[in-house]
Amino acid sequence: MKQSSFLLPTLRDVPADADIASHQLMLRAGMIKQLAAGVYSYLPLAKRVIHKVENIVHEEMSKAGSQQLTMPTLHPAELWQETGRWDKMGGELMRLKDRHNRSFALGPTHEEVITSIIRDFIQSYKQLPLNVYQIQTKFRDERRPRFGLLRGREFIMKDAYSFHSNEESLHEAYEKMYEAYSKTFTRVGLTFRPVIADSGAMGGKDTHEFMALAEVGEDTIAYSDSSDYAANIEMAAVQVKAPNDLPTHREELNKVETKDVKTIEDVSELLNVPASSIIKSLLTNVDGDWVLVLIRGDHELNEIKLKHQLNAKEIRLATNEEVLEVVKTPVGSIGPIGTSLKVVADHAIQYIVNGVCGANEEHKHYTGVHAERDIDVENYGDIRFIKEGEPSPDGKGKIRFAQGIEVGQVFKLGTFYSENMGATVLDENGKSKPIMMGCYGIGVSRTVAAIIEQHHDEKGITWPYEVAPFHIHLLALNMKNQEQADLGEHLYSLLSEKGYEVLFDDRKERAGVKFNDADLVGIPIRIAIGKKASEGIVELKIRHSGESVEVSVSDLVDYLA
Ligand code: ATP
Ligand code: MG
Ligand code: MG
Ligand code: MG
């Protein structure tokens, strides 16, 4: 590829609205262009990387016995109503109507669609197991699309689904997929950890998330410093239940009706603090007393999900809109929490309060609660705060925390979808049974961003060879010099013939511009043709390590091999 005619719009300056490395670098290296919030075009350089990641995914899926298919993006509402997810998905489901006023969704995932296919075609246990996958654009109207490709509203996912007549078969497929994921993420150059995850409300059991380790990751992982134990903190730490037996003997505690507590103003009235200070406290005074607690959107009042015990300053609430949105949601219950928790918005909900907690009765709360005084926060009912340095659950090693980016997830779904949608098979005895299912996702576009998060330096990206957009960046430093230009052309054809993917910088730009762009774009091997072209000598530099050597043109091919 000749750079003079390649769409590679590099930017010198760091874009103002991008605050993490992968987002900044993808913009600066001319990889992506935003069209709307969380919606991006993948420019040619990004497309090449995506293609490589997809190829690895295809290979590993195929080796694991999964067959590729493609399902529609446009899903009729009726299908999603069969599982109740039309309502349950809430705002995240992108909805639209056709000209006949029929409702549709843009697929955020495909359990419903695949189950509708399988139920029509698979009748006997003899036709199982089956494993199918696709790589496709998904749509999710994320509450906060951000960080470029890490959390988009339109993104590329590989989603696989497996079908079984018994638990053992499901387990086998699960293990196989787990293996395939480990190979995939290793091949794309990620440092990652599979972690035990929370199976949530979907009736599933085993599930692991694959976490690419990165400071900017939105998930917290609790792992053992000397074994393989690792869990998403939301799993490792807690399932909090609102207390049944909060010490109501304390006179300071008042049970109050919170039915009409719906807005930040209501909260302010209930707590007798100015509305403005509620937001302010959340945003700035987080080291103090304010805690956000979330309960699932479907009003499972006892399932407060906490993510972490830590300094309140790490609470992730950044925008007024988000706080307002959270506070505006109808109140169910809030949990008894100490003053320093990190809780992450997941499904919609709750509000925030100092000294208020759920009374385990709908629309009732206690006020005047002092967490430390009134509640054994160390171990209250189902609350358990995991602590850095405590023994890991497997008894091997101590707990450490790290941040991770969820790049994939494997999930034993069980029979939630098949039961709700009537996907059954006849077993050996001619009895009808719901099919057991597993589902397995990889965020392809997110993976590309995660790779950059782990592979960059102050100058730009440092691609791992296997997913690099090109193998060699060939620079002719002065295209006006005929000798250099000719040598450039010669090496470009020679190296391409040898099977390397070469980006030839044949632009009429200054050497400094070319070097900077090369560092930014991060192709693993750089070959610069400069003044020594006349002696048949070029400079070869490894982007990752910065090592450089002078090589004579006649030795170049051997040297590269
Ligand atoms: P998250 O917890 O980050 O919201 P998820 O658990 O909702 O992700 P899954 O339903 O497990 O996501 O989807 C499978 C994979 O798709 C995820 O592991 C992730 O890599 C990717 N993915 C999910 N949401 C997004 C998004 N908004 N943008 C990019 N990739 C995403
Ligand atoms: Mg999500
Ligand atoms: Mg997740
Ligand atoms: Mg997930």
TrEMBL record:
Record GO biological process: prolyl-tRNA aminoacylation
A GO molecular-function annotation: catalytic activity, acting on a protein
Protein name in UniProt: Proline--tRNA ligase
EC number(s) from the headed UniProt entry: 6.1.1.15
UniProt cross-references to Gene3D superfamilies, sorted A to Z: Anticodon-binding domain (3.40.50.800), Bira Bifunctional Protein, Domain 2 (3.30.930.10)
Compartments, as annotated in UniProt: Cytoplasm
Source species: Alkalihalobacillus trypoxylicola
Catalytic activity: tRNA(Pro) + L-proline + ATP = L-prolyl-tRNA(Pro) + AMP + diphosphate
TM region(s), chain numbering: none
Species lineage: Bacteria, Bacillati, Bacillota, Bacilli, Bacillales
Family matches, as HAMAP family: Pro_tRNA_synth_type1
